[in-house]
């Protein structure tokens, strides 16, 4: 009896090209949470910085090349076949996973601050590639003015940042401290400008006055337009702003001095102490922002007092950590006590000016 013909193996049907692109975007986004919390791979091999940075640069170049290829083949008709699209997607997937693998090979003992910077750039690259996939899926074969090229530029820009990443934890710490100095400087300048102009909501009054020309006074109240107390500082407010500005200036001075100390005395092998300095310094700018926002009218003096106290606490902790570290070789003769005294002076003045409101608040409970 003749044998029956062997059944033909079923060939899996590939999804259409654009569907494959959409699925790849979803897959890439699923990688992001793992990168955010992922730990360095444990290995017995000695870490070689030169090899690591060479591999990271090569991985970024490969991702950029794949982004270019994908953008080119999906920017005109006919679209690639499902088989060709599968190959392109596999190459993108491999390039992204290789980039992530190199990041994971950076051990913690090279510094948490450095790892954060490498991680941030890696996340930008993964997210940028996912955005490119979205754009190609939504607007394929369209002109160069569309989102695909914009997203491609996002991937390319992120890849171009890799050679700019600091190469050791001291350089990474200085980079972060410089950013924090700039943030606090900007906040201080905005506060000073508002005070000098005596107009915390510059331009808002003109808009309201223009609108009020079309409404009566009774209608204005019903529409909820702010009154003068909501738009301007009282004399008491203006008096309180003075030590607040001084406290923000002291914050800027603290960060500058910490940065100088790290630059002049920081040692690359003291990664843990450098990480501690950066961690506490990262809290200064958000605390300054909270204080700056609380001085805008209508001002609540108790909120200003609370935010000032929080900022002072962060500043003192940052100064104490710096004082106890290797970047301050002679803490007893340093600038740190002077800045602590300046911060205390500002806080004491803020307490004096807000004491009546504090007592009033306590009497209500």
Automatic annotation (TrEMBL):
Domain Cyclin-D1-binding protein 1-like N-terminal: 56-197
Cell location: Cytoplasm; Nucleus
Domain called Cyclin-D1-binding protein 1-like C-terminal: residue spans: 217-320
Keywords, alphabetical: Cell cycle, Cytoplasm, Nucleus
Source species, domain of life: Eukaryota
Subunit record text: Interacts with CCND1 and GRAP2. May also interact with COPS5, RPLP0, SIRT6, SYF2 and TCF3.
Assigned protein family: Belongs to the CCNDBP1 family.
Name by which UniProt lists this protein: Cyclin-D1-binding protein 1
Organism from which the protein derives: Felis catus (Cat)
Organism classification: Eukaryota, Metazoa, Chordata, Craniata, Vertebrata
């Amino acid at each position: 009896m003749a044998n029956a013909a062997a059944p033909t193996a079923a060939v899996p049907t590939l999804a259409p090209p654009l569907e494959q692109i959409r699925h790849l975007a979803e897959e890439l986004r699923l990688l992001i949470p793992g990168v955010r919390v992922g730990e360095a791979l444990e290995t017995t091999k000695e870490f070689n910085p030169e090899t690591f940075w060479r591999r990271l640069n090569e991985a970024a170049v490969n991702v950029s090349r794949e982004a270019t290829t994908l953008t080119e083949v999906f920017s005109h008709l006919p679209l690639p076949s499902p088989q060709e699209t599968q190959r392109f997607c596999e190459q993108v997937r491999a390039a992204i996973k290789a980039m992530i693998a190199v990041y994971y090979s950076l051990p913690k003992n090279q510094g948490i601050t450095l790892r954060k910077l490498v991680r941030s750039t890696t996340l930008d690259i993964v997210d940028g590639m996912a955005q490119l996939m979205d754009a190609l899926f939504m607007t394929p074969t369209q002109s160069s003015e569309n989102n695909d090229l914009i997203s491609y530029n996002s991937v390319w820009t992120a890849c171009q940042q890799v050679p700019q990443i600091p190469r050791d934890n001291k350089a990474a710490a200085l980079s972060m401290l410089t950013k924090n100095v700039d943030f606090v400087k900007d906040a201080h300048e905005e506060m000073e400008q508002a005070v000098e102009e005596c107009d915390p909501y510059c331009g808002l009054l003109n808009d309201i006055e223009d609108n009020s020309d079309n409404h009566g006074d009774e209608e204005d109240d019903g529409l909820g337009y702010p009154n003068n107390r909501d738009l301007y500082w009282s004399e008491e407010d203006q008096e309180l702003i003075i030590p607040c500005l001084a406290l923000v200036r002291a914050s800027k001075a603290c960060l500058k001095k910490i940065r100088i100390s790290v630059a002049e005395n920081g040692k690359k092998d003291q990664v843990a102490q450098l990480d501690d300095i950066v961690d506490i310094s990262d809290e200064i700018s958000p605390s300054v922002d909270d204080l700056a926002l609380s001085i805008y009218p209508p001002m609540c003096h108790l909120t200003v007092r609370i935010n000032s106290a929080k900022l002072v606490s962060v500043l003192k902790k940052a100064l104490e950590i710096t004082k106890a570290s290797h970047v301050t070789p002679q803490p007893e003769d340093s600038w740190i006590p002077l800045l602590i005294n300046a911060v205390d002076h500002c806080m004491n003045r803020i307490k004096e000016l807000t004491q009546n409101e504090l007592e009033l608040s306590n009497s209500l409970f």
